Backbone:
């Protein structure tokens, strides 16, 4: 099989389950992983007997170099020539036919390698790497060089493809690469109406502004007035944890809102299958950070949960308003509450929407189908050869 060298700067952070699945699902291409930091090995095992993982030594003076680029050059940090040579050596040593760089901001840092690589380079964008920093002139100029010198540019949603085109990516290089969900791990299960209105609502994500958690809490406060036995679980960790705890307590909901922290896959599955509906009201914060199509949202849909979300990023590409869930405007907590109350008041609609959600994920986000698409992009990149900057 041909080899693809997958560069992940950290292999892997806890919220990068989608990256792990993508790499481990390859069947016609053999992955070699190149990383600067190996972490969470128990969560993300990588069998060295069959696959190769290279952990690069730390870059010297990294913090000093970052400060110099930021304050003296006012430009994105780029790797030094020594690291470029090391990456070329590693990709040639494993006989990689294609190099896949995960996340656009990493592509910017590795721009000197992309320009020098003797193998075609594919860069995938996942959400925040399209919006954050993209309006800074130096960053945007570097990003456009990534576009020009890469062989293909992948994005997780149509909305991200549009954003990349607006930033100057040549349309002939753009390809849609959706998240692949292992449906065997998330089989459809019809939910039953709980007694006494004891609805269990869930949101699972990093506790950061773009996930719309403040809207979820405000909407649940209204839901709780109509359904005194209803509960909400906000699973995840992040900088908003204490603020959200305080807001729940201030609203008199501390005993009805649970914060279990970041959950492993087995615990997350138990939580999702105990729920009746799934919140994900994402919104665009001041820094421009936005979603592709959230992985947790797709897993919840696959399991049979109807969705209460927003018209944000790639979410409307997964959730059909009025069919598999409800979509409201960003930050519209009253609209979110109204949609939830209408859903919970009609158990038959709740059941039908959950079935439609599962069918939508099966049709568009099934892992094996998405893996085949990704491997076809590797084939295409190999045939195209290394990217080259356009001449003026």
Residues:
């Amino acid at each position: 099989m041909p080899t693809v060298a997958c560069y992940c700067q950290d292999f892997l952070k806890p919220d990068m389950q989608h990256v792990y699945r993508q790499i481990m699902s390859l069947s016609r291409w053999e992955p070699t992983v190149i990383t600067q930091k190996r972490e969470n090995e128990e969560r993300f095992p990588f069998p060295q007997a069959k696959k190769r993982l290279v952990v690069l030594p730390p870059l010297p003076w990294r913090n000093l170099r970052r400060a110099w680029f930021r304050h003296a050059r006012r430009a994105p940090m780029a790797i030094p020539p020594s690291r470029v040579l090391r990456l070329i050596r590693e990709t040639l040593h494993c006989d990689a036919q294609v190099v896949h760089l995960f996340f656009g901001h990493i592509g910017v840092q590795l721009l000197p390698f992309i320009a020098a690589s003797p193998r075609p380079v594919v860069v995938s964008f996942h959400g925040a790497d399209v919006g954050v920093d993209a309006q800074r002139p130096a960053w945007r100029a570097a990003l456009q060089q990534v576009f020009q010198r890469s062989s293909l540019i992948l994005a997780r949603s149509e909305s991200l493809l549009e954003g990349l085109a607006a930033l100057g990516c040549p349309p002939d290089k753009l390809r849609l690469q959706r998240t692949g969900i292992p449906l065997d791990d998330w089989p459809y299960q019809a939910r039953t109406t709980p007694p006494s209105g004891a609805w269990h609502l869930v949101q699972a994500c990093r506790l950061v502004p773009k996930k719309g958690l403040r809207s979820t809490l405000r909407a649940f406060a209204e839901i709780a007035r109509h359904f005194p036995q209803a509960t909400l679980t906000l699973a995840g960790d992040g900088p908003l944890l204490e603020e959200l705890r305080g807001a729940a307590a201030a609203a008199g909901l501390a005993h009805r809102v649970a914060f279990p922290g970041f959950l492993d896959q087995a615990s997350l599955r138990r939580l999702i299958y105990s729920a009746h509906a799934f919140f994900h009201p994402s919104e665009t914060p001041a820094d421009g950070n936005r979603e592709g199509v959230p992985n947790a949202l797709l897993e919840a849909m696959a399991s049979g949960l109807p969705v209460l979300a927003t018209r944000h990023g790639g979410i409307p590409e997964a959730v059909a308003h009025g069919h598999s869930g409800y979509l409201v405007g960003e930050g519209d907590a009253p609209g979110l509450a109204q949609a939830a109350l209408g859903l919970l008041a009609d158990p038959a609609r709740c059941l039908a929407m959950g079935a439609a959600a599962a069918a939508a994920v099966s049709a568009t986000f099934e892992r094996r189908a998405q893996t085949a698409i990704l491997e076809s992009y590797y084939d295409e990149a190999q045939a195209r050869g290394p990217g080259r900057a356009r001449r003026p």
About this structure: The chain has two domains: 3-179+367-384, 195-364.
